[in-house]
Amino acid sequence: MHRLDPRVKISLTFLYIIFVFVASNYQGIAVIALLLSAVIMSSGIPFSQYLKSLKAILFIVAFTSVLNLFYGSGKVVWQFKFMTITEGGISNAVFVAIRIVSLILFSSALTFTTSPTQLTDAMERLMKPLKLFHVKVHEIAMMMTIALRFIPTLLEETDKIMNAQKARGADLESGGITQRIKSLIPILIPLFISSFRRASDLAMAMECRCYHGGEGRTKMKRLRITGLDIWAVAFSACLCCCVIIFKVRFPAALR
Q1: 66-96 b/e with 16+ CB inside 10 Å = b?
Q2: 3-class DSSP state of 24
Q3: Contact at 8 Å (CB) between 58 and 104?
Q4: What is the C-alpha separation between 103 and 113, in angstroms, rounded?
Q5: Which of 95, 136, 167, 181, by CA, is between 20 and 30 Å from 16?
Q6: Cβ neighbours of residue 119 under 8 Å, at least 6 residues apart?
Q7: What is the pLDDT of residues 39-91, one digit of tens each?
Q8: What is the rounded CA–CA span in Å between residue 17 and residue 22?
């Protein structure tokens, strides 16, 4: 996974996401799970890291699954007044939860095995045809690179400002929602001022180095398609064909 061309990884990730929704039965989702297992194993990243990436969306998975419990047909399993849970509803809830988890794990595999610089460079190469429509592809990629680069810096700056406000006696954790929102104002204002100051310094530094956009610029690392990329595309294409065949031959799980 680490040695794959980032353009191939981004393209295959989008393809996987599409086929997660194309798979409409458990046979198809089993093929997706097989592909996901191969991706996770070949990434060399501990599975605990993937589980950490799921923590942020556990509430969304649970909430969506509970909603789908009440939409479905078939034999009634539980009923209370106007609420009814059927076998079809349970199948829908399980299937939707598997889909969401698969999406997050595929996306995590991409970000775990590709650096931000490689991602933005690959996005620039993939968006190159948009130059025919006068889209400033290089500038968009540069903005993405800078944004990703300064996320850790802004998080560190936020932590420093919060500690400074707490040292001055600010209460940031107690009170209701309204009070907590008001307590964020002394944090957001210095953070915005610091962000604009950094942006101004960066713009001045780029002008001093005669930066004038992407016209005529070369790359330090050239992206090349290798045999490993071709094998990855062929393997993914075979599994996607299996998903389509299962979709045609077997009934849908969502009902």
Answers
A1: eebbebbeeeeeeeeeeeebbebbbbbbbbb
A2: coil
A3: no
A4: 16
A5: 136
A6: 6, 10, 110, 111, 144, 148
A7: 999 888 988 888 888 887 888 888 888 887 777 676 776 677 767 777 777 88
A8: 9
